[in-house]
Each structure stands twice: as structure tokens, then as C-alpha cells.
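Hi W.,

Here's what went into the run:
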Amino acid sequence: MKIAVLASGNGSNFEVIAQAIKDKKIAAELVLLFSDHHDAYVLERGKKFDIPCESFELKEFSDKQSYEDALLDLLTEYNVELVVLAGYMRIIGKNLLAAFPNRIVNIHPALLPNFPGLHGIKDAYEAGVKETGVTIHYVDSGVDTGPIIAQGRVEVSDEDSLSDLETKIHQIEHQLYPEVLAKIVKENS
Ligand code: GRF
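Here's what came out:
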């Protein structure tokens, strides 16, 4: 199965996924890394792996539709079969969703349906929850609303700072995302 990772920023999830594919823990081919920011750190990480790394930005297009059409062309060019969002900070538009039904996966740093949106970790922390976590789900047209595939739980202790909680969440992400992708690939190959 040919996988593309879409990421906007740091790329720590991209890196663990790329490494898991390289180590054959995920029986897939990583055919493309795409970022919607030319200066995203994920593109630096991409250089460590022998894969095409591409980027273009929304502002280079007349509107969101043309941007997404270009992205769809790119995914088609690389024969992508599964799209993996790893900190890709954009809503997926309807053409892309239609082209990849149940073939776009996202990771969200909270236990959905709780704390959707941009600040899942901070929102959970500020709400004072004793438990939060990570959700991997298929993407639909809503914000963090698609069918849930897997969740990982994290306890929040009274001593945890926000930064402690972020560290715990990322540790769970880095363990869970490659495991779940390995399973999805196995079930669909
Ligand atoms: C992760 O916390 C992920 O859950 C969220 O964006 C963050 C991306 O982190 N969607 P990184 O760029 O993979 O380090």
C-alpha cells in the first residue's frame, strides 16, 4: 500500500511513521511527504529518508479549491492509496474526501469526541480532566469527527504542567500511530 504523509509543522509523528516503514514494521511504501509550509521542520526530517518531499502553500493559489486540486493531482501522481495526516493543520475539502473514502487517517491529541479543534491538549489540561489521551480516526468533513479507529489514554496528575502533559501525549502518539497504521495496512492489503 502506497502511503503519503501530510504535515504542517514539527513532524515528530511523520518521523516515527517513516522509521516504522523503513524498519518494515508497517508493510507499506512511503511514497510522499507533503507539507503546506515550505519552512516546516518536517521537511528537514524528510531529508533523512529516501522519499520525495514536496511543499506548496495555500497563498500561492487563487483559492482553497485550486490548492486542494493541486494536492489531489500530487497524490494521484504518486499513486497514493492511504493519506496519513500527522499535524496537518487544514480541513480536508470535499474533492479530496471523495477521492479517498475511508482512506484518510488523522491523529488528534485528545480523547474525541472531547476537546476537538486546534488545542486538544491545552483545552483538556485547562478543563482539569484526570484523564485525556490520543485518538486516531478516519477523516470526514467535520473537525475531528470521523469514525474512531483507536484511542490511547493518559492520566493527568496534579503535578503535571501543560508541558509534562504534552510530552506524555506525544509519547503515546509515537507508539500508537505506527501500530495502528500497521494494522490498517495489513487489513487493506
Ligand atoms: C500532534 O500532537 C497531533 O496529534 C496533532 O498535531 C501534532 C503534530 O505533532 N494533530 P508533530 O508535528 O507530529 O510533532
